[in-house]
Amino acid sequence: MKKVVLLLLIGFVFSCSDDVQIPEIIQPCQTVAASFASDITDNSARLNWCGSVNEAGECLPVTGVTWTASWGLPGFDPDTGTIIDTPATSINITGLSPQTSYEFYVKSDCDLANNEWFGPVEFRTSCPAPTGLGATNITQTGATLTWMPGGSEISWEIKYGLVGFNLEEAELFATGNSTEHIVNNLMPNSEYEFYVRANCNSVTDGSQTGSSSAFSGPYRFATCLPPINLTFDTVTQNSITVDWDSNAQTTWEVSYGEAAGFTPDTGTITTTNNSNFTATGLCPNTTYTFAVRTICSSTTQSQWFSFGSVTTPTLGYTGMYTYEEIGNTDEPIFGDPATVEIVSVSDTERSITVKYLANLDVAGTQPTMTFNFTLNCDGTVSVPEDQDTNFNCGGANVLLGLGAATPTAYNMVDDTTIDIRFTEDTGSAMCTNAPLSEVTIRLTKI
User: Fold this and answer.
1) CA distance from start to end of the chain
2) In what residue span(s) does the Fibronectin type-III domain sit (predicted)?
3) Domains plus CATH for the chain?
Protein backbone atom coordinates (compact mmCIF):
# COMPACT_ATOMS: atom_id res chain seq x y z
CA MET A 1 0.00 0.00 0.00
CA LYS A 2 2.87 2.39 0.80
CA LYS A 3 4.44 1.80 -2.63
CA VAL A 4 1.20 2.70 -4.37
CA VAL A 5 0.83 5.94 -2.40
CA LEU A 6 4.42 6.93 -3.19
CA LEU A 7 3.96 6.39 -6.91
CA LEU A 8 0.75 8.40 -6.85
CA LEU A 9 2.50 11.29 -5.09
CA ILE A 10 5.35 11.30 -7.64
CA GLY A 11 2.94 11.27 -10.53
CA PHE A 12 0.99 14.10 -8.92
CA VAL A 13 4.05 16.33 -8.49
CA PHE A 14 5.22 16.00 -12.12
CA SER A 15 1.70 16.34 -13.50
CA CYS A 16 1.21 19.59 -11.60
CA SER A 17 4.50 21.28 -12.53
CA ASP A 18 4.99 22.22 -16.24
CA ASP A 19 8.02 24.48 -15.52
CA VAL A 20 10.47 21.82 -14.36
CA GLN A 21 13.65 21.69 -16.67
CA ILE A 22 16.44 19.12 -16.78
CA PRO A 23 19.84 20.97 -16.60
CA GLU A 24 21.90 20.82 -19.84
CA ILE A 25 25.31 19.23 -19.35
CA ILE A 26 27.96 21.52 -20.96
CA GLN A 27 31.12 19.70 -22.03
CA PRO A 28 34.40 21.61 -21.38
CA CYS A 29 36.64 22.63 -24.29
CA GLN A 30 39.43 20.26 -25.26
CA THR A 31 42.49 21.27 -23.32
CA VAL A 32 46.08 21.34 -24.49
CA ALA A 33 48.43 19.15 -22.47
CA ALA A 34 51.77 20.17 -23.99
CA SER A 35 53.29 22.04 -26.95
CA PHE A 36 56.73 22.34 -28.51
CA ALA A 37 58.57 23.47 -31.66
CA SER A 38 60.59 21.14 -33.92
CA ASP A 39 62.29 21.01 -37.33
CA ILE A 40 63.61 24.51 -36.78
CA THR A 41 65.59 26.09 -39.62
CA ASP A 42 66.70 29.62 -40.34
CA ASN A 43 63.30 30.55 -41.83
CA SER A 44 60.77 27.89 -40.76
CA ALA A 45 59.61 25.72 -37.87
CA ARG A 46 56.99 23.11 -37.04
CA LEU A 47 54.64 23.91 -34.12
CA ASN A 48 53.32 20.84 -32.29
CA TRP A 49 50.86 20.25 -29.44
CA CYS A 50 49.15 17.40 -27.59
CA GLY A 51 45.55 17.05 -26.45
CA SER A 52 46.66 14.51 -23.87
CA VAL A 53 49.85 12.87 -22.67
CA ASN A 54 50.32 9.33 -21.37
CA GLU A 55 52.33 8.34 -18.29
CA ALA A 56 55.48 8.08 -20.40
CA GLY A 57 55.13 11.69 -21.48
CA GLU A 58 54.16 10.77 -25.05
CA CYS A 59 51.62 12.74 -27.06
CA LEU A 60 48.37 10.90 -27.69
CA PRO A 61 46.30 11.62 -30.79
CA VAL A 62 43.05 13.53 -30.43
CA THR A 63 40.45 13.34 -33.19
CA GLY A 64 37.37 15.41 -33.95
CA VAL A 65 38.89 18.63 -32.65
CA THR A 66 39.73 21.80 -34.58
CA TRP A 67 42.67 23.73 -33.16
CA THR A 68 43.70 27.36 -33.34
CA ALA A 69 47.38 28.30 -33.24
CA SER A 70 48.79 31.81 -33.02
CA TRP A 71 52.43 32.87 -33.36
CA GLY A 72 54.49 36.05 -33.33
CA LEU A 73 57.41 37.82 -31.74
CA PRO A 74 57.89 37.46 -27.96
CA GLY A 75 55.28 39.34 -25.94
CA PHE A 76 52.68 39.46 -28.72
CA ASP A 77 48.93 39.19 -27.99
CA PRO A 78 47.80 35.73 -29.18
CA ASP A 79 44.39 37.17 -30.15
CA THR A 80 46.10 39.42 -32.73
CA GLY A 81 49.00 37.19 -33.84
CA THR A 82 49.27 35.15 -37.03
CA ILE A 83 46.39 32.71 -36.52
CA ILE A 84 45.93 29.34 -38.22
CA ASP A 85 42.98 26.93 -37.74
CA THR A 86 43.69 23.25 -38.37
CA PRO A 87 42.33 19.79 -37.51
CA ALA A 88 45.93 18.56 -37.18
CA THR A 89 48.05 18.78 -34.05
CA SER A 90 50.97 20.45 -35.83
CA ILE A 91 51.56 23.13 -38.44
CA ASN A 92 54.61 24.24 -40.43
CA ILE A 93 55.25 27.97 -40.51
CA THR A 94 57.61 29.72 -42.95
CA GLY A 95 58.89 33.19 -43.75
CA LEU A 96 60.67 33.56 -40.42
CA SER A 97 63.82 35.62 -39.91
CA PRO A 98 67.14 33.91 -39.11
CA GLN A 99 68.37 33.84 -35.52
CA THR A 100 65.17 35.37 -34.18
CA SER A 101 63.04 34.35 -31.17
CA TYR A 102 59.32 33.61 -31.61
CA GLU A 103 56.46 32.45 -29.40
CA PHE A 104 53.31 30.50 -30.11
CA TYR A 105 50.03 29.67 -28.37
CA VAL A 106 47.39 27.05 -29.15
CA LYS A 107 43.84 26.24 -28.05
CA SER A 108 40.89 24.21 -29.30
CA ASP A 109 38.41 26.02 -31.54
CA CYS A 110 35.78 26.37 -28.84
CA ASP A 111 33.72 29.49 -27.89
CA LEU A 112 33.17 28.65 -24.24
CA ALA A 113 34.56 30.78 -21.49
CA ASN A 114 36.76 27.98 -20.22
CA ASN A 115 38.74 27.90 -23.50
CA GLU A 116 42.08 29.58 -22.85
CA TRP A 117 45.29 29.87 -24.84
CA PHE A 118 47.99 27.38 -23.89
CA GLY A 119 51.42 29.01 -23.96
CA PRO A 120 53.52 30.79 -24.75
CA VAL A 121 56.18 28.38 -25.98
CA GLU A 122 59.30 30.15 -27.21
CA PHE A 123 61.67 28.96 -29.91
CA ARG A 124 64.52 30.55 -31.85
CA THR A 125 65.32 30.12 -35.52
CA SER A 126 68.80 29.03 -36.50
CA CYS A 127 71.31 30.67 -38.78
CA PRO A 128 71.39 29.79 -42.51
CA ALA A 129 72.98 26.47 -43.44
CA PRO A 130 76.37 26.53 -45.24
CA THR A 131 76.44 26.49 -49.03
CA GLY A 132 78.89 25.61 -51.81
CA LEU A 133 80.14 22.30 -50.41
CA GLY A 134 83.15 20.82 -52.20
CA ALA A 135 86.27 18.69 -51.90
CA THR A 136 89.80 19.58 -53.04
CA ASN A 137 93.31 18.14 -52.75
CA ILE A 138 91.85 14.65 -53.14
CA THR A 139 94.28 11.78 -52.75
CA GLN A 140 93.69 8.07 -52.30
CA THR A 141 93.68 8.48 -48.52
CA GLY A 142 92.59 12.05 -47.85
CA ALA A 143 90.83 15.22 -48.99
CA THR A 144 90.14 18.81 -47.98
CA LEU A 145 86.43 19.44 -47.40
CA THR A 146 85.27 22.99 -48.12
CA TRP A 147 82.10 25.10 -47.87
CA MET A 148 80.86 28.71 -47.83
CA PRO A 149 79.14 30.47 -44.88
CA GLY A 150 75.40 30.74 -45.24
CA GLY A 151 75.30 33.93 -43.17
CA SER A 152 77.40 35.66 -40.52
CA GLU A 153 78.23 32.50 -38.54
CA ILE A 154 81.88 31.96 -37.64
CA SER A 155 82.21 28.29 -36.70
CA TRP A 156 81.06 24.96 -38.13
CA GLU A 157 80.80 21.24 -37.48
CA ILE A 158 81.02 18.36 -39.98
CA LYS A 159 80.19 14.68 -40.22
CA TYR A 160 81.63 12.39 -42.89
CA GLY A 161 81.83 8.73 -43.82
CA LEU A 162 81.36 6.22 -46.62
CA VAL A 163 78.34 6.91 -48.82
CA GLY A 164 75.17 6.02 -46.92
CA PHE A 165 76.62 6.37 -43.40
CA ASN A 166 74.19 7.05 -40.52
CA LEU A 167 74.16 10.80 -39.98
CA GLU A 168 72.59 10.55 -36.52
CA GLU A 169 75.22 8.14 -35.20
CA ALA A 170 78.33 9.56 -36.89
CA GLU A 171 81.00 11.41 -34.98
CA LEU A 172 80.80 15.22 -35.05
CA PHE A 173 83.97 17.17 -35.82
CA ALA A 174 84.31 20.85 -34.91
CA THR A 175 86.22 22.92 -37.47
CA GLY A 176 86.56 26.12 -35.46
CA ASN A 177 86.41 29.27 -37.58
CA SER A 178 87.78 27.62 -40.73
CA THR A 179 85.60 26.93 -43.78
CA GLU A 180 87.64 23.85 -44.65
CA HIS A 181 88.58 20.64 -42.91
CA ILE A 182 91.28 18.10 -43.83
CA VAL A 183 90.33 14.44 -43.47
CA ASN A 184 92.91 11.64 -43.56
CA ASN A 185 93.06 7.86 -43.23
CA LEU A 186 90.45 7.31 -45.91
CA MET A 187 90.25 4.10 -47.92
CA PRO A 188 91.57 4.26 -51.52
CA ASN A 189 89.14 4.05 -54.44
CA SER A 190 86.12 4.55 -52.20
CA GLU A 191 83.16 6.92 -52.22
CA TYR A 192 82.64 9.27 -49.28
CA GLU A 193 80.16 11.99 -48.40
CA PHE A 194 80.07 14.76 -45.83
CA TYR A 195 77.62 17.13 -44.17
CA VAL A 196 78.32 20.48 -42.52
CA ARG A 197 76.30 22.75 -40.24
CA ALA A 198 76.96 26.15 -38.70
CA ASN A 199 77.17 27.10 -35.06
CA CYS A 200 74.81 30.05 -34.88
CA ASN A 201 76.36 31.66 -31.80
CA SER A 202 79.89 32.83 -31.27
CA VAL A 203 80.00 30.81 -28.06
CA THR A 204 77.70 27.78 -27.90
CA ASP A 205 77.66 24.26 -26.59
CA GLY A 206 75.36 23.25 -29.41
CA SER A 207 72.64 22.04 -27.03
CA GLN A 208 70.08 24.84 -27.08
CA THR A 209 67.39 24.96 -29.76
CA GLY A 210 68.43 27.10 -32.69
CA SER A 211 72.09 27.08 -31.75
CA SER A 212 73.00 25.14 -34.92
CA SER A 213 71.82 25.39 -38.49
CA ALA A 214 70.43 22.47 -40.41
CA PHE A 215 73.02 20.17 -41.98
CA SER A 216 73.95 20.91 -45.59
CA GLY A 217 74.79 17.90 -47.70
CA PRO A 218 75.54 15.30 -48.59
CA TYR A 219 78.46 16.24 -50.82
CA ARG A 220 80.01 13.17 -52.40
CA PHE A 221 83.61 12.63 -53.41
CA ALA A 222 85.81 9.63 -54.14
CA THR A 223 89.36 8.78 -53.17
CA CYS A 224 90.04 8.19 -56.84
CA LEU A 225 92.90 10.31 -58.17
CA PRO A 226 91.53 12.97 -60.52
CA PRO A 227 93.13 14.02 -63.82
CA ILE A 228 95.35 17.11 -63.57
CA ASN A 229 96.71 19.85 -65.85
CA LEU A 230 93.69 19.97 -68.12
CA THR A 231 94.30 21.87 -71.38
CA PHE A 232 92.79 22.49 -74.80
CA ASP A 233 95.27 21.22 -77.35
CA THR A 234 93.93 21.72 -80.89
CA VAL A 235 90.77 23.57 -81.90
CA THR A 236 89.48 23.52 -85.48
CA GLN A 237 86.18 24.43 -87.07
CA ASN A 238 84.77 20.96 -86.48
CA SER A 239 87.01 19.30 -83.86
CA ILE A 240 88.56 19.96 -80.46
CA THR A 241 91.40 18.00 -78.81
CA VAL A 242 91.76 18.07 -75.03
CA ASP A 243 94.74 16.84 -73.02
CA TRP A 244 95.45 16.04 -69.35
CA ASP A 245 98.06 14.41 -67.13
CA SER A 246 97.17 10.86 -66.12
CA ASN A 247 98.07 11.25 -62.42
CA ALA A 248 99.12 7.56 -62.53
CA GLN A 249 95.61 6.48 -63.57
CA THR A 250 94.57 4.63 -66.73
CA THR A 251 90.87 5.14 -67.53
CA TRP A 252 88.78 8.28 -67.90
CA GLU A 253 85.41 9.54 -69.05
CA VAL A 254 85.24 12.70 -71.15
CA SER A 255 81.99 14.63 -71.44
CA TYR A 256 81.38 17.52 -73.82
CA GLY A 257 78.57 19.51 -75.36
CA GLU A 258 77.48 22.99 -76.34
CA ALA A 259 78.17 25.33 -73.44
CA ALA A 260 74.59 26.56 -73.06
CA GLY A 261 72.95 24.30 -70.47
CA PHE A 262 75.86 21.84 -70.39
CA THR A 263 76.26 19.47 -67.45
CA PRO A 264 78.83 16.65 -67.44
CA ASP A 265 76.21 13.99 -66.70
CA THR A 266 74.07 14.96 -69.71
CA GLY A 267 76.82 15.68 -72.25
CA THR A 268 78.23 13.34 -74.87
CA ILE A 269 80.30 10.91 -72.77
CA THR A 270 83.18 8.80 -74.06
CA THR A 271 85.44 6.38 -72.16
CA THR A 272 89.11 6.40 -73.09
CA ASN A 273 92.38 4.85 -71.94
CA ASN A 274 94.42 7.70 -73.43
CA SER A 275 95.11 10.94 -71.58
CA ASN A 276 93.80 12.93 -74.54
CA PHE A 277 90.63 12.99 -76.57
CA THR A 278 89.47 14.53 -79.84
CA ALA A 279 85.82 15.40 -80.31
CA THR A 280 84.83 15.53 -83.96
CA GLY A 281 81.68 16.48 -85.82
CA LEU A 282 81.50 19.85 -84.09
CA CYS A 283 80.02 23.01 -85.55
CA PRO A 284 82.03 26.08 -86.57
CA ASN A 285 81.66 29.25 -84.49
CA THR A 286 80.12 27.33 -81.57
CA THR A 287 81.10 27.34 -77.89
CA TYR A 288 81.70 23.94 -76.28
CA THR A 289 82.42 22.84 -72.71
CA PHE A 290 84.49 19.78 -71.75
CA ALA A 291 84.88 17.85 -68.48
CA VAL A 292 86.82 14.73 -67.52
CA ARG A 293 86.89 12.34 -64.57
CA THR A 294 88.90 9.28 -63.59
CA ILE A 295 87.24 5.85 -63.54
CA CYS A 296 88.72 3.78 -60.70
CA SER A 297 86.16 0.95 -60.76
CA SER A 298 82.68 0.18 -62.01
CA THR A 299 81.26 2.00 -58.97
CA THR A 300 83.92 4.57 -58.12
CA GLN A 301 84.82 7.68 -60.10
CA SER A 302 86.52 10.93 -59.29
CA GLN A 303 84.45 14.08 -59.46
CA TRP A 304 84.14 15.84 -62.82
CA PHE A 305 86.82 18.41 -63.60
CA SER A 306 86.06 21.05 -66.20
CA PHE A 307 88.34 22.24 -68.97
CA GLY A 308 86.13 25.30 -69.27
CA SER A 309 84.72 26.49 -72.58
CA VAL A 310 86.21 27.15 -76.00
CA THR A 311 84.70 28.42 -79.25
CA THR A 312 85.44 26.77 -82.57
CA PRO A 313 86.66 29.16 -85.31
CA THR A 314 84.33 30.47 -87.97
CA LEU A 315 84.58 28.90 -91.40
CA GLY A 316 86.10 32.06 -92.90
CA TYR A 317 87.48 30.28 -95.98
CA THR A 318 86.75 32.83 -98.71
CA GLY A 319 89.41 33.54 -101.33
CA MET A 320 91.39 31.81 -104.04
CA TYR A 321 92.56 28.21 -103.58
CA THR A 322 94.69 25.76 -105.46
CA TYR A 323 92.83 22.65 -106.52
CA GLU A 324 94.21 19.15 -106.09
CA GLU A 325 92.57 15.76 -106.42
CA ILE A 326 94.28 13.27 -104.14
CA GLY A 327 94.18 9.66 -105.28
CA ASN A 328 92.40 10.29 -108.56
CA THR A 329 93.82 8.45 -111.58
CA ASP A 330 90.84 9.20 -113.76
CA GLU A 331 89.60 12.48 -115.20
CA PRO A 332 89.21 15.29 -112.63
CA ILE A 333 85.75 15.54 -111.07
CA PHE A 334 85.41 19.22 -111.88
CA GLY A 335 87.32 19.28 -115.12
CA ASP A 336 90.90 20.46 -114.79
CA PRO A 337 90.93 23.79 -112.92
CA ALA A 338 94.26 25.09 -111.63
CA THR A 339 92.50 27.24 -109.05
CA VAL A 340 89.03 27.70 -107.59
CA GLU A 341 87.45 30.48 -105.61
CA ILE A 342 85.38 30.09 -102.48
CA VAL A 343 83.04 32.99 -102.99
CA SER A 344 80.89 32.74 -99.84
CA VAL A 345 80.80 31.00 -96.47
CA SER A 346 77.90 30.62 -94.03
CA ASP A 347 78.50 29.65 -90.42
CA THR A 348 74.77 29.50 -89.82
CA GLU A 349 74.15 27.06 -92.65
CA ARG A 350 77.72 25.70 -92.42
CA SER A 351 78.07 25.89 -96.19
CA ILE A 352 80.68 26.99 -98.72
CA THR A 353 80.12 28.04 -102.30
CA VAL A 354 82.92 27.12 -104.72
CA LYS A 355 83.36 28.74 -108.14
CA TYR A 356 85.61 27.22 -110.78
CA LEU A 357 86.23 27.26 -114.54
CA ALA A 358 84.53 24.19 -116.00
CA ASN A 359 86.39 22.21 -118.63
CA LEU A 360 83.38 21.15 -120.66
CA ASP A 361 83.75 19.14 -123.84
CA VAL A 362 82.75 22.13 -125.92
CA ALA A 363 85.54 23.50 -128.02
CA GLY A 364 86.60 27.04 -127.20
CA THR A 365 84.46 27.45 -124.03
CA GLN A 366 85.50 27.73 -120.38
CA PRO A 367 82.29 28.70 -118.56
CA THR A 368 82.31 29.58 -114.85
CA MET A 369 80.26 27.23 -112.67
CA THR A 370 79.37 27.46 -108.95
CA PHE A 371 78.55 24.68 -106.49
CA ASN A 372 77.28 24.84 -102.92
CA PHE A 373 78.24 22.23 -100.31
CA THR A 374 76.66 22.03 -96.85
CA LEU A 375 79.29 20.99 -94.30
CA ASN A 376 77.30 19.17 -91.64
CA CYS A 377 78.47 19.22 -88.03
CA ASP A 378 78.96 15.47 -88.02
CA GLY A 379 81.66 15.77 -90.68
CA THR A 380 79.49 14.76 -93.62
CA VAL A 381 78.76 16.83 -96.72
CA SER A 382 75.44 17.25 -98.44
CA VAL A 383 74.35 19.08 -101.57
CA PRO A 384 71.19 21.18 -101.22
CA GLU A 385 70.10 20.32 -104.77
CA ASP A 386 71.45 18.47 -107.76
CA GLN A 387 73.87 20.67 -109.63
CA ASP A 388 75.18 20.19 -113.17
CA THR A 389 78.87 19.24 -113.37
CA ASN A 390 81.18 18.27 -116.20
CA PHE A 391 82.36 15.04 -114.66
CA ASN A 392 83.54 13.63 -117.96
CA CYS A 393 82.29 10.09 -118.50
CA GLY A 394 82.18 9.27 -122.17
CA GLY A 395 81.79 12.94 -123.07
CA ALA A 396 78.57 13.39 -121.06
CA ASN A 397 78.00 15.69 -118.13
CA VAL A 398 76.43 14.35 -114.92
CA LEU A 399 74.80 15.83 -111.82
CA LEU A 400 76.58 16.59 -108.55
CA GLY A 401 74.61 14.53 -106.06
CA LEU A 402 72.82 12.16 -108.40
CA GLY A 403 75.57 11.45 -110.83
CA ALA A 404 79.13 10.28 -110.64
CA ALA A 405 80.39 12.79 -108.06
CA THR A 406 78.84 12.84 -104.56
CA PRO A 407 80.55 14.61 -101.63
CA THR A 408 80.47 12.46 -98.50
CA ALA A 409 82.81 13.94 -95.88
CA TYR A 410 85.04 16.91 -95.17
CA ASN A 411 87.92 17.84 -92.91
CA MET A 412 89.20 21.28 -91.93
CA VAL A 413 92.87 20.39 -92.09
CA ASP A 414 94.01 23.78 -90.85
CA ASP A 415 93.14 27.43 -91.29
CA THR A 416 94.09 27.33 -94.98
CA THR A 417 93.23 23.84 -96.20
CA ILE A 418 89.95 21.97 -96.70
CA ASP A 419 89.66 18.34 -97.79
CA ILE A 420 86.35 17.27 -99.32
CA ARG A 421 85.88 13.57 -100.00
CA PHE A 422 83.81 12.39 -102.95
CA THR A 423 82.57 9.04 -104.17
CA GLU A 424 82.17 8.26 -107.86
CA ASP A 425 79.33 6.09 -109.02
CA THR A 426 81.30 3.55 -111.03
CA GLY A 427 78.15 1.54 -111.57
CA SER A 428 76.51 4.31 -113.57
CA ALA A 429 75.87 3.65 -117.24
CA MET A 430 77.64 6.93 -117.96
CA CYS A 431 80.72 6.12 -115.93
CA THR A 432 81.58 2.54 -116.72
CA ASN A 433 85.00 3.78 -117.77
CA ALA A 434 85.68 5.40 -114.38
CA PRO A 435 87.46 2.84 -112.18
CA LEU A 436 87.94 5.14 -109.15
CA SER A 437 85.33 4.92 -106.42
CA GLU A 438 86.67 7.54 -103.99
CA VAL A 439 88.66 10.76 -104.32
CA THR A 440 89.58 13.72 -102.08
CA ILE A 441 89.60 17.27 -103.37
CA ARG A 442 92.11 19.38 -101.46
CA LEU A 443 91.65 23.13 -101.57
CA THR A 444 94.62 25.11 -100.28
CA LYS A 445 94.43 28.87 -99.85
CA ILE A 446 96.77 30.86 -102.05
Assistant:
1) 144
2) 129-227, 228-315
3) 34-124 (2.60.40.10), 131-222 (2.60.40.10), 228-311 (2.60.40.10), 319-445 (2.40.128)
